[in-house]
From TrEMBL:
The UniProt record lists the keyword Transmembrane: no
SUPFAM superfamilies the UniProt entry points to: S-adenosyl-L-methionine-dependent methyltransferases (SSF53335)
Domain SAM-dependent MTase RsmB/NOP-type per the UniProt entry, residue ranges: 215-502
Subcellular location: Nucleus, Nucleolus
Natural source organism: Grantiella picta
Lineage: Eukaryota, Metazoa, Chordata, Craniata, Vertebrata
GO cellular component: nucleolus
Name of this protein: NOP2 methyltransferase
Active site residues of this protein: C432
Biased composition (Basic and acidic residues): 62-73, 91-102, 533-543
Amino acid sequence: APAKAKKTQPKGNHVELSSDGEVEEGSWEMEEEEEDGSSEEMVDDYGASSSEEEELLPIEKAALKQKPDREGLSEDDSDEEEEEEEEEAEEANKQKMGQKEEEGPDLQLNLDIDEQFKLPTTEEIEKEDILFISSVLDSLTVFPPAEPPDLHVIHQRIKGNLDVLQDFAVKREEGRTRQEYLALLRRDMAAYYSYSDFLLTKLMDIFPLPELINFLEANEVPRPVTIRTNTLKTRRRDLAQALINRGVNLDPLGKWSKTGLVIYDSSVPIGATPEYLAGHYMLQGASSLLPVMALAPQENERILDMCCAPGGKTSYIAQLMKNTGMILANDSNAERLRSVVGNLHRLGVTNAVVSNCDGRQFPKVLGGFDRVLLDAPCSGTGVISKDPAVKTNKDEKDILRCAHLQKELILSAIDSVNAASETGGYIVYCTCSIMVEENEWVVDYALKKRNVRLVPTGLDFGKEGFTRFKDRRFHPSLKSTRRFYPHTHNMDGFFIAKLKKFSNAIPQAQKEAAAPAAVPDTIVEPPPKKKKLEGSKPEKEQKLPQPALKKKHKLQAQRRPLKA
């Protein structure tokens, strides 16, 4: 082994690593012979190699490692290849040393990067473009990029651009406008994080620039796996102990939740344990617990979950109600209701009725509920870490289409609630989107169209909703709504608003809109009925109530001053 180690060791003293990343025994024995077992020299050799190999990339080291293993090659061929590889390694080292020499003065003198940052020329931008699309003779032609984009360069440019924009008056390049810097930043972020230009423009309107980078970075990392204990069948303490015994590493979700657990890692599939199959817990995102906590269902109430699939929130409502009262679990998609039925059976929910109706028609189907939960369908811009396709497949039409559907659903949800309920009269509206058009805009629309007001959600964390956005001004009470972001709360992006209905009457604006359709029916049909009734009744019975009414009016007039 020592002899082989001497052959395989390239120039310079260093420790050989095997393909598995483990230190080879032969190299250690060889070093002990040559260096008299000096531990200090071994540490130096292991920590810092010779100048030639100090800057080698792992892939270059691997290439050097593979040289002695090629036994089938002749000595002449192997010598030529060794010389070529050494020349390539030296060239790579020179390039890297040149880069370090360029960067060295900046680091040593502690110069600001912003002073060095300059906007790239149009030629440099064209080289980095992923695709060129031009129309030639009314036909589209696609050209490949001149050079593949260097993500490291783009990332450094994003940092420099952000620094300039934070102190634009001092650090900007002369003759350049803020719009040019923002356009470059948007283009670089779209290339680096793979977002569409439309979505990035929307996000830049919502977040300040430093926070936007944190949001984009958080979307590249999956959210923690969380489960909700089903208290209809077990306690969180008992469930945690049972899962720990199965090799699951977990912790309580947080002080705000009494049922949630966060799973760090597991030696068994967390969705196929005996406890899961027995209905002791439900795999559910942390943000999905919040709307039910805001709804705060009470025992023996009638509750509507208007868009219930896959049943996580419905089952949470049932366990808070301790299987009393009635829950109407509705969804317009019949296929998704299969998972709802399966989860409700598995979790032991017995107070739920499953229905397949369009939520917009719901007040006509059934109403008079104490509370309604509306988890509205949305664009999904809060769950990009789960569905990266949202980065590129959404446009303005998709957002407005979702917002229109949400406005219809929230009016139906409000109309389905009984304002005279002794314990309820509440509506919780939530989405897994962070777009203002799908959140504050929809709630503000509901405040204008129905007799409802916003009330505190009861959640002691989360960011306040917007009361103004660009040129729009919303009702001041929208401060009581809550926004949750992946980069601040480590959960999916979410919006929650809680409304209290104080009157079942529809405001005048709605009556005027419905009046033209309702007036002809009341005019055409009742007159013949009234004539028949008038003909059938004797004249004396019709005249008698008149003096009685006069006496009542006189008595009321006499009693009024006494009451005052």
